[in-house]
Design a protein that fits this description.
Barwin-like endoglucanases, six-stranded mixed β-barrel, 4 helices
Length: about 190
C-alpha cells in the first residue's frame, strides 16, 4: 500500500490579530489555490521572515487563519535566518523559536511561533485501519529510487477530515529525491 508525498515549502499560518497587523484591519486571506488537505489553502498573501542573520522574502501564508501564528521552516531556512527552532508537530508551539514577520502594512515579532515541522502522514481513520496504525504512532517509511532511503520516526496523524498524504520538508525531500505525488510505503522499523 502506497502513500502519496506532499513536499512542504516554508510557510506560515497567521492568527487573525497578526493578519490584521500585517495586512490591515478586517483583512481576509485571498485564496490562491486549494491544498490537498480539506479546507486548507495557499493564500495570495506573502510576507518576509527576518532573523538575526538574514531574511527570506515571499513566504506564503496558508489559510484559514488559526488561533496562533505558526511559522514552518526547514533546517536550511533556519541557518539562513540565524535561528534554532525545534522540530515539532504542528500546533506544538511551547518553547518554539521566534521571528520577525514583515507584511505590507506592519510587522509582528512572533514569539514561540517557529518550528521545523516533524515529518508526518495525514490519514483518515479508514486509512489508519488499513495500515494498522493509530494517531500519534511513529512509523518508518521506505523511499525508493536512486537516492532511496528509509525515514524513521514519521509521525502518524489521524482525523476524519484528513486525506492520505505524507508531508516532508524540502531539505528531507531533496536528500532522498522525493517530489510531490511520488509514492512511499510504510516498512518495519529497524532501530
Amino acid at each position: 500500500m502506497k502513500i502519496p508525498v506532499g513536499v512542504s515549502s516554508r510557510h506560515l499560518h497567521l492568527s487573525a490579530a497578526d493578519l490584521a497587523t500585517l495586512f490591515g484591519p478586517n483583512r481576509q486571506l485571498q485564496k490562491l489555490r486549494d491544498l490537498s488537505q480539506t479546507g486548507q489553502f495557499a493564500a495570495m498573501e506573502v510576507v518576509t521572515l527576518v532573523g538575526p542573520k538574514g531574511e527570506i522574502p515571499n513566504v506564503r501564508v496558508l489559510g484559514p487563519a488559526r488561533a496562533r501564528t505558526q511559522v514552518e521552516v526547514s533546517f536550511s531556512d533556519a541557518v539562513k535566518l540565524g535561528i534554532n527552532p525545534p522540530v515539532r508537530d504542528s500546533g506544538s508551539l511551547s518553547g518554539a523559536g521566534s521571528i520577525r514577520i514583515e507584511g505590507p502594512m506592519g510587522a509582528v515579532d512572533a514569539e514561540d511561533a517557529v518550528i521545523i515541522a516533524w515529518r508526518h502522514i495525514h490519514m483518515a481513520p479508514t486509512d489508519a485501519a488499513l495500515f494498522g496504525v493509530a494517531d500519534k504512532d511513529k512509523v518508518s517509511i521506505y523511499v525508493g529510487g536512486d537516492r532511496g532511503m528509509t525515514l524513521h520516526h514519521v509521525l502518524v496523524r489521524v482525523r476524519p477530515d484528513f486525506r492520505l498524504e505524507m508531508h516532508i520538508d524540502t531539505d528531507e525531500a531533496n536528500a532522498c529525491g522525493l517530489r510531490n505525488g511520488d509514492l512511499v510505503e510504510i516498512c518495519p522499523a529497524k532501530d
